[in-house]
Amino acid sequence: MLDAGLARRIRLVGLDVDGVLTDGGIYLGTAAGSPVELKRFHILDGVGVRLLRAAGLHVVVVTGRPSEASELRAKEMGVDELLQVPPDQKLSALEGALERRGLTLNECAYVGDDLADLQILRSVALPIAVANAAPEIKAAARIVTPLSGGQGAVRLVAEMLLQARGEWRGLIEQIYEVRDVADRAQRSR
């Protein structure tokens, strides 16, 4: 379980792409003589990002592998910022994104899966690893999700964080107009 005080302190959630928003696989080929890179993203992760943003949290994607597919998905999800930087610059890029928002690493959660994320995970307030993460990443994480990257792990992280903050139910009702059966019965009287 996630500590409510820590959850309420988080103001920005950082996400890796390959291995977190995807299963880590890429499809390479050519189309009309030009190279093409495709990635498979899980739709539930977009829902998770939407919920985090609706709660007022910033979402920043930090990837060590620039690609048009990552750009497209980041735009679709409506993240605050996409940082496509060399792997050894991921922490400094995230620090820049935090600084631009007047935030610190102490107000940041980050979801990672491999060694390029280790420096960030050792620096943020809430380090999170996906189930398929490298052993070093899992060891550095406070939370390891039961889901692997590309399988809706980010959606699960959003739910865990927002439940710990006490915002989950209200957001679900606000965004999706979902009420439990007892609430509906009460209103119909």
Topology:
Layout: H1 4-9, E1 12-15, E2 27-31, E3 34-38, H2 43-54, E4 58-63, H3 68-77, E5 81-84, H4 90-100, E6 108-112, H5 118-121, E7 126-129, H6 135-140, E8 143-144, H7 153-164, H8 168-176, H9 181-188
Parallel strand pairs: 1-4, 1-6, 4-5, 6-7, 7-8
Antiparallel strand pairs: 2-3
Characterise this structure.
By secondary structure, the protein is of the alpha/beta class. The protein has nine helices and eight strands. It has helices at 4-9, 43-54, 68-77, 90-100, 118-121, 135-140, 153-164, 168-176, 181-188; strands at residues 12-15, 27-31, 34-38, 58-63, 81-84, 108-112, 126-129, 143-144. The strands form two sheets. A six-stranded parallel beta sheet has the order 5-4-1-6-7-8, sandwiched between helices. The chain has a two-stranded antiparallel sheet with strand order 2-3. Helix 3 (68-77) links the parallel strand 4 and strand 5 (81-84). The protein is globular.
